[in-house]
Design brief:
2 domains, 6 helices, six-stranded mixed sheet, 287 residues, alpha+beta, five-stranded mixed barrel, Rossmann fold
Length: 287
């Protein structure tokens, strides 16, 4: 099923009588979004920024920006929030994860915001290993394995990561209204892969407490819990869809490809971190 997107004229966010059925808040307690049910399907409200209407089957997304909100902000919300949630309504498995191409196979970095997924994936891309996704990672079942389906060809980084990775001259998308993160566009110095690749490894990023690179195999039960926490799911009350989603997660978690990964969060250590990951991902006996 394809996904069509339409941006409508700007409008104010009028009050909604019914309470939201779900919402998200930022770590500082700021309300980030409210999810409502509506006649057309779902209304995703990002207060002060935009409303997105998603059809029941996830095939159509429409956006109404708040007056004065920049096009770059609307595009960001569409790509990184509305699209993964809409695809989840199509039955797609969507995770908070970044991924890269390692010798024709996909290596994924999964974890909560702030663990360095984008920085790590970008460091691979600047070293000639193409990235496939940043933050919103789409997995498709393919027989006994899963494929990583590439997402949009851009990554988002904080200014210190842009500087440390020497990306200041890389083309960037327009700035957004609610964050100082830059969205860097793929090109000659930021290699991107647009081809689906078999999923080889899933690394769950730790908090950065380790004094050196540590990689530990995860048991299926632990992998299932970790994967569940990093899913994009628009409507957990749709029991049939949720059951299919959980079945996919169970099959994925039972593959011997999941590992805890932690390393010191120092930019100068990234080359050694990449090398450790490359060695581990290419070793058939580490499963």
């Amino acid at each position: 099923m394809s996904l069509t997107y339409t941006q409508r004229a700007a409008r104010e966010q009028s009050p909604i009588a019914a309470p939201p059925f779900h919402g998200m808040t930022l770590p500082d307690g700021t309300v980030w979004s409210h999810f409502y049910r509506c006649d057309a399907g779902y209304l995703l409200r990002f207060p002060g920024l935009a409303d997105f209407e998603v059809s029941c089957d996830g095939s159509r997304v429409q956006a109404w920006p708040v007056p004065g909100v920049t096009p770059g902000t609307v595009e960001h919300l569409h790509l990184n929030q509305a699209v993964p949630l809409a695809l989840s309504r199509q039955g797609k498995l969507m995770l908070h994860g970044s991924s890269v191409d390692v010798d024709g196979q996909g290596v994924a970095f999964v974890g909560v915001s702030g663990r360095g997924k984008s920085t790590l994936a970008t460091s691979f891309a600047t070293a000639g290993r193409r990235f496939l996704s940043d933050d919103g990672m789409h997995l498709e079942s393919a027989g006994t394995q899963f494929l990583i389906i590439p997402s949009h060809p851009s990554v988002r980084l904080w200014e210190d990561s842009v500087d440390a990775l020497d990306m200041a001259s890389t083309p960037m998308a327009p700035a957004i209204d609610f964050s100082t993160k830059a969205r860097l566009l793929a090109g000659s110095d930021l290699a991107y892969s647009g081809e689906p690749l078999p999923l080889r490894r899933v690394y769950f990023l730790g908090p950065g407490d380790a004094s050196s690179v540590t990689i530990q195999a995860m048991k299926p039960a632990a992998a299932l819990i970790a994967l569940t926490r990093q899913c994009f799911i628009l409507d957990v009350d749709q029991q049939d869809a949720l059951a299919r989603h959980f079945e996919d997660l169970c099959r994925l978690s039972n593959l011997p490809i999941h590992f805890d990964l932690d390393y010191p969060r120092r930019y100068e250590d990234l080359p050694s971190v990449r090398e450790a990951i490359l060695r581990h991902a290419s070793d058939d006996h580490r499963s």
